[in-house]
Specification:
Helix content is about 30%, strand content about 15%. The protein is of the alpha+beta class. The protein has a domain of about 70 residues. The chain has a two-stranded antiparallel sheet with strand order 1-2. Helix 2 packs across helix 3. About 10% of the residues are buried. The structure holds zinc ion. The site of zinc ion (ZN) has 8 residues, from helix 2.
């Protein structure tokens, strides 16, 4: 019987052939991928995606941390103030950027 933890698809199934020629199924943990910025696709800094790290160790405390990079965050904050001052329309920002601009108060 398969162990309960291996029944979900979060466990990768790997077919192995033993030296005796028998085919067996091994279960491996899937590799965690590096978290990427949702706007520009760059790798996020300061993010620890280790399974052993606690929540506060995983993500910086900056706004939108773990979702968008520091450069894109600065751009979003600038756009938000420009929209508030009427120097720029919300429609001038891309769809992805608008989502974050609306999240700022
Ligand atoms: Zn970015």
């Amino acid at each position: 019987m398969v162990l309960p933890r291996n029944r979900s698809r979060s466990a990768k199934r790997v077919f192995k052939r033993t030296p005796t020629g028998r085919n067996v199924l091994h279960y491996k943990k899937r590799r965690l991928r590096m978290p990427l910025c949702r706007l520009c696709g760059a790798g996020l800094g300061g993010v620890n995606n280790s399974r052993r790290a606690s929540k506060s160790e995983k993500v910086p405390t900056r706004i939108f941390a773990g979702q968008i990079c520091a450069g894109c965050t600065a751009e979003i904050v600038k756009m938000k103030s420009r929209v508030a001052l009427g120097e720029m329309k919300l429609e001038d920002a891309s769809m992805a950027q608008r989502e974050f601009i609306k999240m700022l108060k």
